[in-house]
UniProtKB/TrEMBL annotation:
GO terms for cellular component: membrane. Residues 59-114 form the HAMP domain. This is HAMP domain-containing protein. GO terms for biological process: signal transduction. Signal peptide: none annotated.
Length: 164
């Protein structure tokens, strides 16, 4: 019986050793998983921050696109202020290029509009002068004006005779 007990004891010892090895392996796996969890948590926080920052950049970009859209409506309404796009035009990307082109275009439109207004005013003056000359010509051609002119000439003639 003793040999059976020894044999059982040896089996138990072997099983205990195997269990200890398995516990050691599980503890190593646990440590690896904890390291993996920490790494994933750290990277997920970094990713979350990166996504947040990119989202903020996109929001600012979209706000500046909105500024250009509003500027187009202001040009149409005649209320556009070129400086309103200075922040957007300071960008070094395509949106900044678009804002600079838009500002230049709006400035050119403003200059052309000013020149056209000046030309319209000059044409009004010319039309008024032409109308005035036509009215004068009509007055000069009337019989009353001709009679008045003859009377003035007679008065001048009579003064000239008196003075001589």
């Amino acid at each position: 019986m003793m040999s059976k007990d020894i044999s059982s004891q040896e089996q138990l010892n072997t099983e205990i050793e195997l269990l200890k090895q398995r516990i050691g392996e599980l503890e190593n796996d646990k440590e690896d998983l904890e390291i993996l969890l920490d790494t994933i948590t750290e990277h997920s926080t970094d990713l979350e921050n990166e996504i947040y920052q990119k989202n903020q950049i996109m929001l600012k970009y979209l706000q500046q696109v909105k500024l250009i859209t509003e500027a187009a409506a202001e040009v149409e309404g005649g209320t556009f202020a070129i400086a309103s796009l200075n922040d957007v035009s300071a960008r070094e990307d395509e949106l900044g290029q678009l804002a600079r082109v838009f500002q230049n275009m709006a400035e050119q439109v403003k200059i052309r509009e000013s020149k056209l207004q000046q030309q319209v005013e000059e044409l009004r003056i010319e039309i008024d002068k032409g109308r005035q000359q036509k009215q004068v010509a009509e007055i000069v051609q009337t019989d009353s004006f001709k009679n008045l002119k003859q009377k003035i000439q007679k008065i001048k003639d009579s003064r000239t005779k008196k003075n001589t």
